[in-house]
């Protein structure tokens, strides 16, 4: 376990800090402190990821520091030693500028900033009336190897392991007094992602939402020097205040919650797209040239393999969202039928380019089994787009690469389903309820589309 006697390797801490150190602008901090009614609210304010001390400096500025004991109401945790030193220096300098002796200012700053890992060596016996800050966001697969080992199931609950933000949220809600509040500037991903169902369920047993609003990522943050200049953070931030679930006006449940509408995606009795259509994820068949082939290769294999025209988003005319003539083919194989000699030769020559995640014990099978209704006309929905795009596909055309496929379940013609999808109401809903990506793009998923009200 990480502690002061057995510190984490400096290179791992440096890598973690470099990946997560996105600092908050003072006007955003003060707006949040206003909503938390600091310092009129009693008790201690904790910043679990203090960084360079920006949150705590703004909080201290609001205190009457003519009485040094008021500084005991401020506490911050920071894992990175240089950032912790920067925070202490900023606090000490502020106190010295307000007539504190240097030695006392340094001593108080050191007491305020704790240079430890909040997730492993955070507060144990103390509870806080206010928790405020900008916790780190980093998915588990991007963590330095040392911290992947450290933040295992014995340290971080399985439902909170996918992102370090989730672990901070989980820990903070366990440190809150019954009448306390947590005010954070954080990514919206825990509210809206399909993969955070269990996290929302667990958090919702403790806290609910008192306030939630989007903030502008371009003006909300500034970055350390090692980050790309003038590059906005790759997050979609919200300002959120959490409080006891029993008194919160907005409950957190398993259902995704839109920061843009402050409501769950659908009402329990509301008709959704899944009631009138089947929504399926198109298969990923690996890199082109293996199970997805061009016309020339298809010509050599047409008598030796079952082929079907395959389309991706680059087969769509962007000017009118009409399908262009397909130029690729997918090789269809089955488990109990080994390939012909010519097809076997083609696959063996090209399978070396297949990523590990796509390799199957039966080498002649693609990475994912197609589960599409290819005998019916369908609608292709690009999974990454700025709005819902709906493209007609005739029978016998296979969408690929995790785009979405829609066929009618028989209660409504496909043409009417298309009109619903293209309606202003549907476009507004998908924009409000889909995870945001770069440059105003949306991540449109099967689960999300199935839940869309009609």
Structure description:
The protein is an alpha/beta fold and 454 residues long. It folds into 2 domains: 235 residues, Rossmann fold; 178 residues, Adenine-n6-DNA-methyltransferase TaqI, Chain A, domain 2 (Alpha-Beta Complex), CATH 3.90.220. 30% of the residues lie in helices and 19% in strands. The chain has 16 helices and 21 strands. It has a 7-stranded mixed β-sheet with strand order 4-3-2-5-6-9-7. Strands 10-20-16-18 form a 4-stranded antiparallel β-sheet. Helix 3 links the parallel strand 2 and strand 3. Helix 2 crosses helix 3, helix 3 runs parallel beside helix 4 and helix 4 crosses helix 5. The protein is elongated and about 90 Å long.
What key attributes describe this structure?
2 domains; elongated; 30% helix; Rossmann fold; 21 strands; four-stranded antiparallel β-sheet; alpha/beta; disordered N terminus; 454 residues; Adenine-n6-DNA-methyltransferase TaqI, Chain A, domain 2
């Amino acid at each position: 376990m990480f502690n002061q006697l057995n510190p984490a390797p400096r290179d791992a801490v440096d890598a973690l800090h470099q990946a997560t150190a996105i600092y908050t602008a003072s006007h955003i901090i003060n707006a949040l402190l206003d909503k938390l009614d600091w310092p009129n609210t009693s008790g201690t304010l904790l910043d679990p990821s203090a960084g360079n001390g920006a949150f705590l400096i703004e909080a201290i500025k609001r205190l009457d520091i003519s009485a040094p004991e008021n500084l005991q109401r401020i506490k911050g945790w920071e894992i990175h030693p240089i950032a912790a030193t920067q925070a202490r220096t900023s606090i000490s300098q502020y106190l010295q500028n307000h007539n504190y002796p240097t030695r006392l200012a340094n001593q108080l700053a050191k007491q305020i900033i704790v240079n430890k890992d909040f997730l492993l060596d955070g507060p144990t016996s103390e509870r806080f009336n206010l928790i405020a800050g900008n916790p780190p966001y980093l998915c588990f697969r991007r963590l330095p190897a040392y911290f992947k080992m450290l933040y295992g199931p014995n340290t971080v609950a399985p439902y909170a392991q996918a992102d370090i933000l989730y672990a901070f949220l989980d820990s903070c809600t366990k440190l809150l007094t019954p009448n306390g509040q947590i005010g954070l500037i954080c990514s919206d991903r825990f509210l809206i992602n399909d993969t955070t169902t269990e996290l929302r369920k667990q958090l919702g047993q403790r806290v609910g939402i008192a306030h939630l609003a989007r903030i502008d990522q371009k003006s909300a943050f500034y970055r350390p020097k090692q980050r790309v200049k003038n590059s906005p953070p790759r997050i979609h931030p919200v300002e959120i205040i959490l409080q006891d679930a029993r008194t919160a006006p907005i409950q957190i449940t398993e259902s995704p919650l839109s920061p843009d509408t402050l409501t769950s995606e659908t009402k329990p009795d509301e008709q959704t797209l899944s009631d009138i259509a089947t929504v399926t994820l198109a298969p990923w068949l690996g890199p082109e040239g293996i199970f997805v082939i061009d016309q020339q290769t298809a010509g050599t294999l047409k008598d030796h393999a079952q082929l079907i025209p395959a389309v991706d988003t680059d087969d769509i005319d962007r000017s009118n969202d009409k399908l262009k003539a397909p130029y690729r083919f997918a090789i269809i194989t089955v488990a109990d039928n080994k390939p012909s000699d010519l097809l076997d030769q083609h696959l063996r020559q090209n399978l070396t380019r297949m990523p590990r995640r796509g390799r199957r014990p039966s080498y002649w099978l693609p990475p994912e089994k197609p589960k599409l209704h290819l005998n019916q006309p369908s609608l292709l929905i690009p999974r990454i787009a700025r709005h819902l795009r709906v493209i007609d596909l005739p029978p016998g055309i296979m969408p690929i690469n995790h785009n979405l496929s829609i066929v009618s379940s028989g209660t409504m013609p496909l043409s009417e389903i298309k009109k619903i999808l293209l309606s202003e109401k549907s476009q507004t809903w998908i924009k409000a309820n889909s995870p945001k990506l770069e440059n105003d793009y949306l991540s449109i998923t099967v689960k999300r589309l199935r839940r869309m009200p009609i």
